[in-house]
Amino acid sequence: MVAAGHHRVTTSTSTTADQIRVLIVDDIPETRDHLAKLLGFEGDIEGVGSAASGAEALEQAGRLQPDVVLMDINMPDMDGITATERLSSEVPTASVVMMSVQGEADYLRRSMLAGAREFLVKPFSSDELTASIRQVYAREREKASRFVSAAGPAASTRTTRDADPGSIVALFSPKGGVGRTTVAVNMAIAAATELGKKVVLVDGSFQFGDVGVLMNLNPKNKSIADLVPELEAGGEPESLDTFVINHSAGVGVLLAPPSPEMAELITPGGIKRVLERLRETNDLVIVDCSSYFNDTTLAILDVADVILTMLTLEITSIKNMRQFLEVADQLGYEPGKLRLVLNRADSTLGIRVSDVEHSIGRKVDHSIVSDGRSVVYALNRGVPFFLSNREAQVSQDILRLAVSVAGEAKEPVVDDARKTAKNKSLFAWR
Ligand SMILES: Nc1ncnc2c1ncn2[C@@H]1O[C@H](COP(=O)(O)OP(=O)(O)OP(=O)(O)O)[C@@H](O)[C@H]1O
Ligand SMILES: [Mg+2]
C-alpha cells in the first residue's frame, strides 16, 4: 500500500507501479551522470531527474514527487543538510539518502537529525547504492502503510477491526513524576469515549505501575505478569480477554504486576509480542512506560509507532530530555516518531516554553495546562477527570492529543458511550 498523498505526478517517462523513483542531487555534473548510469542498469529503480543545487532539488522534488532523493552533502548555495531539512517538511514522502566523502563522519549525525534516512560514504559501489535505495524505500513503504492504517485521519474510515493493525503509542519521559500516567489514562478514555476508538491501555511501569489506582481497578485482577509467561512458553492464548480488564469507560486495561519483584517476569521479547498481539484487535494501544531506561522500556519504544515524550518546565526534566533526545537519535528513531508533550505548560516559575525549546533544540508539539484541582480530585475519587470534568481545559488539551495520535472520531454517535461511562455501568467494548 502506498501512503495517501503519495500520488505520482505523471511525467513523460512511463513508470511501472513498483519502480522506485529517484532524484539525483549533486553539484558536479560528472557525478550526476555517473549515478544516473548506475541506476539505469536496475530494472526496479528509475532516475526521474537530477538537480545541481539544494534549491533546484527542492523545486524538482516538489514537481516530480520522487520516492528517494540521493543528496550530496556539500554543495554551494544551499547545502545538502539544509535541503534535507526543508524536504522533510515540504515533500515528506521523499526519503533522503545522503552522500558524503570520507572524513565527514560528524555529518552523519547532522544528516540524520535533518531527516536523512541513510548515509553513503563516497566512493561507494553500485551495490551499496542500490541496496540503500531499496532499503530506504521498503522501510518507508512499510511505515507509510502502517501510518495510514493506524494513526492518520484514514483511521476514521476504518470499518472492520481486524483489517489493519492499530497503532502503538508509548508515553515516556526520562524523568519521573511529570504526568505520564495521568495523561495516558485520560487520553485512553478520550480516545474511547469521544473518538469511538477501541483502546487498550498497558501499564508498562512494571515495578511501580499505578494505572490501576487511577482507574480504581481491583489489584487482584490478572496482569501482564500472567500473560507474558504464557506467551513465552510458546503458547498462544486464544484471546487476551482474560488478561485485559474492562474499565467502565470502555477502555481495556492490561495491569502491571501486583508486586515489584514480578517485573522480572517481563522480558523485552515478551512485551513486544504482547503489544503486537494487542494491536491486532485494537485501534490504539497506549503504553504508560516507566521513566527508567532499561531493556524492556527500550523494547516498548522500539515497537511504538509514536513516542509521546513528556516533560515539564523544570530544569531537571529539561536536562534529562536533552540527553534522551541524543539517545533517541543514536537509536535511529525517525524524528517524526518522537513528539514532545509539555505537561503543566502554564506553571512557569521562571522558565518559558521558548527557553525549553531553545535548550533542547526542538519545538514542543503539544501542551497540556496545569490543573491541580481537577487532577487531584479525580485521583482521590478514582474517576479520571476526562469523565467527570470533560469541559475543563486540561481535558480539552488531552482530547486534542488523542486526536493527533488516533485521528478524528469514527462516527458522531459517541454521546451514548460517554453517558454510559459516566454512569459507571459496564460498556461492552468488545
Ligand atoms: N496537568 C496537570 N495538572 C496538575 N497536576 C498534574 C497534571 N498532570 C499530572 N499532575 C500531577 O502530577 C503528579 C505526577 O503525575 P503522574 O503520576 O501522572 O506522573 P508520572 O510521570 O506517571 O509519575 P511516575 O514517575 O510516578 O510514574 C500527580 O500528583 C498528578 O496528579
Ligand atoms: Mg506513572
How would you explain this protein's 3D organization?
With 430 residues, the protein is α/β, with parallel strands linked by helices. Helices cover 42% and strands 16% of the residues. It has helices at 29-40, 54-64, 80-90, 105-114, 126-150, 180-193, 211-214, 224-232, 268-281, 295-303, 315-330, 353-360, 372-381, 385-388, 393-406, 415-422, and strands at residues 20-25, 45-51, 68-72, 95-101, 118-122, 167-172, 199-204, 245-246, 251-254, 284-289, 306-311, 338-343, 366-368. Helix 3 (80-90) runs parallel beside helix 4. The relative contact order is 0.11. Bound molecules: adenosine-5'-triphosphate and magnesium ion (MG). The site of adenosine-5'-triphosphate (ATP) has 20 residues, from helix 6 and helix 13.
Q: Which terms would index this structure?
A:
disordered N terminus, binds adenosine-5'-triphosphate, five-stranded parallel β-sheet, alpha/beta, 13 strands, 42% helix, 16 helices, 430 residues, eight-stranded mixed β-sheet, single chain, binds magnesium ion, 16% strand, globular, disordered C terminus
Short characterization:
The protein has helices at 29-40, 54-64, 80-90, 105-114, 126-150, 180-193, 211-214, 224-232, 268-281, 295-303, 315-330, 353-360, 372-381, 385-388, 393-406, 415-422; strands at 20-25, 45-51, 68-72, 95-101, 118-122, 167-172, 199-204, 245-246, 251-254, 284-289, 306-311, 338-343, 366-368.
Give the total of beta strands.
13
Distance between the termini: 28 Å
User: Which molecules are bound besides the chains?
Assistant: adenosine-5'-triphosphate, magnesium ion
H/E series, N to C? EHEHEHEHEHEHEHHEEHEHEHEHEHHHH
Radius of gyration: 23 Å
Oligomer classification: single chain
The helix fraction, in percent, is: 40-55%
What spatial order of strands do you see in the largest sheet? 8-9-7-10-6-11-12-13
Q: Tell me, what's the shape?
A: globular
Q: How many H/I helices?
A: 16
Class by SSE composition: alpha/beta
**What's the pLDDT, averaged over the residues?**
83
Give a short account of the largest sheet: 8 strands, mixed
Unreliable segments of 5+ consecutive residues: 1-15, 147-162, 412-430
Beta content:
15-25%
